Amino acid sequence: MTGQPDAAALQEILRQTRSIAVVGASDKPGRPSHGVYSYLVSTGDYEVYPVNPTITGIDGAPVYPSLADLPVVPDMVDVFRRYDELPSVLADTLALQPRPKYLWLQQGLWHEEVAREAEAAGLQVVMDRCLKVDHSRLCRR
């Protein structure tokens, strides 16, 4: 099924990833996107780039207004946006060159058309999964 890799595939994605853009990252500690961002930074496993046009910093780190403003092309784009915004996030992702390898739609997000388009463009897609939970379960010793 599109967007539903098994545990071994998830583990491989997480181990192959070196950089992650967190689209929709929040500076509010109670928000899930803040918790995932902070967790990913704390692991030391990844270069993590928060993306949000409405804030300028999270815990002292700069926040980028868009994927196009990042200093690198991330391996993974992790998405915390509303369902109706997912096509535009995909368009921004596909505009990056070279393209990211992975599109991860956080828990609660599922969009078949976005997944099909992303996969047709060569991205591996994960939908409706929490990156923090899967990383903690599959990659932490």
UniProtKB/TrEMBL annotation:
The lineage of its organism: Bacteria, Bacillati, Actinomycetota, Actinomycetes, Mycobacteriales. InterPro entries: CoA-bd, NAD(P)-bd_dom_sf. Pfam families: CoA_binding_2. Residues 13-109 form the CoA-binding domain. It comes from Mycobacterium noviomagense. SMART domains: CoA_binding (SM00881). This is CoA-binding protein.
